[in-house]
Amino acid sequence: MERLHELSAASRLEASPYLLTVNNIEVIYDHVILVLKGVSLEVAEGKIVALLGANGAGKTTTLKAISNLLRAERGEVTKGTIVYKGRQVESLSAPELVRMGVIQVMEGRRIFGHLTVEENLLTGAYTRRATRGEIRQDLERVYQYFPRLKERRNAMAGFTSGGEQQMTAVGRALMARPSMILLDEPSMGLAPQIVEEIYEIVQSLNRNEGVSFLLAEQNASLALRYAHRGYILENGRVVMEGEAGALANNEDVKEFYLGISKGGRLSFRDVKHYRRRKRWLT
């Protein structure tokens, strides 16, 4: 009977229409600090999903829970499940998830500054069993999406601009041939024009290569413009979710995240005051 129950549960996982399903997870650091409190989200194959919220809302922790990078920071998923391609993955190591096609691009780029841009890109193919010809072909594909990196391929990555470093980090992830990229705060510290360029490339990768994205972002207006669906985190909980267009036009989201009310754009002081009476928390 127990075996039949296990088979039934496995078949339900395989039948899921989603590439990634996070179901009611709880994350605790140092066995004491509760950071995520019942977070659930779904990413359909070939879609861009935005994870929105202020600094400290739990966006990065959610991504690290999915990619299994929490253990390095004395964090753990204590409740709930994470299912990727029909398989529960909470117990897998980060390298095992990379081989399954889940790559995280960390906040702040985290490139190898002492290596050249091209050497950084090549490290992304380290886990693959590929021929030199295949790797060279993938490298040229990355350069097609990021022509600026081809111009700078022999430059020391640590001396390139912030935008070039972000492009290097995304390009390195592409070299692993991922099915899903977890992109953490891609706009942080970059000029608006560069941010737009990176988001356009993300959209192209999604459309042309079929790569799914779960991106954590504070810039709600920008993220919702490119995403198909969005989730809003507050203090470790999902407080609102929906299609990107619906969220962008939602009055609460306009007031609390875009600074726009029915009467026009709000000042920072007004937004701060409104935060005390969010309708979804009352």
Describe this protein with a few key phrases:
282 residues; alpha/beta; 12 helices; disordered N terminus
Mean pLDDT: 86
Task: Describe the main β-sheet briefly.
Answer: 6 strands, mixed
Poorly predicted ranges? 1-13, 271-277
Query: What Rg, in angstroms, do the CA atoms define?
Result: 20 Å
From N to C, what is the helix and strand string?
HEEEHEEHEHHHHEHEHEEHHEEH
Structural class: alpha/beta
Q: Give me the side-by-side strand order of the main sheet.
A: 6-7-8-3-9-10
Distance between the termini: 45 Å
Strand content: 25-35%
* Number of strand segments: 12
Tally of contiguous helical segments: 12
The percentage helix is 25-40%
Overall shape: globular
Helix-strand layout with pairing:
Blueprint (H helix, E strand, L loop, with lengths): L1 H13 L3 E12 L3 E12 L3 E5 L6 H9 L7 E10 L2 E2 L5 H7 L1 E4 L11 H7 L8 H14 L1 H5 L10 H13 L5 E5 L7 H18 L2 E6 L2 H7 L2 E6 L2 E7 H5 L2 H6 L3 E2 L2 E2 L2 H7 L8
Parallel strand pairs: 3-8, 3-9, 6-7, 7-8
Antiparallel strand pairs: 1-2, 1-4, 4-5, 9-10, 11-12
Helix pairs in contact: 4-7
Structure overview:
This protein is an alpha/beta fold and 282 residues long. The chain has a domain at 102-177. The protein is 39% helix and 26% strand. The chain has helices at residues 2-14, 59-67, 94-100, 117-123, 132-145, 147-151, 162-174, 192-209, 220-226, 244-248, 251-256, 268-274, and strands at 18-29, 33-44, 48-52, 75-84, 87-88, 102-105, 180-184, 212-217, 229-234, 237-243, 260-261, 264-265. The strands form 3 sheets. A 6-stranded mixed β-sheet has the order 6-7-8-3-9-10, with helices on both faces. A 4-stranded antiparallel β-sheet has the order 2-1-4-5, with helices on both faces. A two-stranded antiparallel ribbon has the order 11-12. Residues 1-13 and 271-277 have low confidence and may be disordered.
